[in-house]
Amino acid sequence: MKTAQSILLLLLFMPLTEPAPPTQQDAPIIYEYGTENFQETKFGQDYEDKYLDGENIKEKKAMIIPDEKSFQLQKDETVTQLPTKKESDEMPTCLLCVCLSGSVYCEEVDIDAIPPLPKESAYLYARFNKIKKLTAKDFADMPTLRRLDFTGNLIEDIEDGTFSKLSLLEELILAENQLLKLPVLPPKLTVFNAKYNKIKSRGIKANTFKKLNNLSFLYLDHNALESVPPNLPESLRVIHLQFNNITSITDDTFCKANDTRYIRERIEEIRLEGNPIMLGKHPNSFICLKRLPVGSYF
């Protein structure tokens, strides 16, 4: 009887104590959870590897600490680019002078020669320096120049080919130098200023101004001219020849002796004061002018 009761109790409690086998749904859940942990761990490891391995440590340091190697990181957009050869070639001029929007200002810096200029230069102001000579090499590769100002230097000589390639040059100022003669001038000049030099008439060739059809302002005052330069172009509006050594003029100096109807339309001012000449003795020399020259008539 006791044996039968024991067996009955055992049969009743067996379903409660027997462990249930794992179902098919439990396995993917455990596997997916484990996979996510694995991916997170792998991502963290990759992140650490990226910044902690030896090669990338160097890369990271190169991005932070500027040294010679940092300039070799071409893919790093934050690295400052090295100056190009053109910029480095121009650097001495623009450190000594001031370079701004095509203009170069080299005033009162005691240079004795023309420094290398930026290729795009249009205006050069080199006033009050110690330049003694200008050569063809000075502007050989500078076709963009439009104005040159050398006021207050010590220029004694200018090679004939110095300005020959400056096809755009409009203003040339050589005032207050030591010139004895004039070079060949570029064809598009509108202003030429060589006052306060030592230029004599023999230092100006007969055709120096003849083909300058754009020349409007000519300043040759305070020199040593014995006569008015020949073949002055029709385009001239202002001619300053005061305080030279001009002793005489002819009917062909400003007008045309054989053409009484000829009028020099554009002339607005001619200054001849301070010369050893009595303008009143040459009345036919001004017959084509709308205004008489400034000077002594009596």
Please describe the topology of this protein:
Elements: H1 2-17, H2 26-52, H3 54-64, H4 85-96, E1 98-100, E2 103-105, E3 123-125, E4 133-134, E5 147-149, E6 157-158, E7 171-173, E8 191-193, E9 217-219, E10 238-240, E11 269-271
Parallel strand pairs: 2-3, 3-5, 4-6, 5-7, 7-8, 8-9, 9-10, 10-11
Antiparallel strand pairs: 1-2
Strand order of the largest sheet: 1-2-3-5-7-8-9-10-11
CATH topology group of the largest domain = Leucine-rich repeat, LRR (right-handed beta-alpha superhelix)
Strand content: 5-15%
Q: Percent of residues in helical segments?
A: 10-25%
Q: How many DSSP E strands?
A: 11
The CATH class of the largest domain is identified as: Alpha Beta
Shape estimate: elongated
**Oligomer status:** single chain
Per CATH, the architecture of the largest domain is Alpha-Beta Horseshoe
If helices are DSSP runs of H or I spanning 4 or more residues, what is the number of helices?
Answer: 4
The CATH H-level homologous superfamily of the largest domain:
Ribonuclease Inhibitor
Compute the separation of the termini in Å. 172 Å
Largest sheet: 9 strands, mixed
Q: Which blocks of ≥5 consecutive residues have pLDDT under 50? A: 15-91
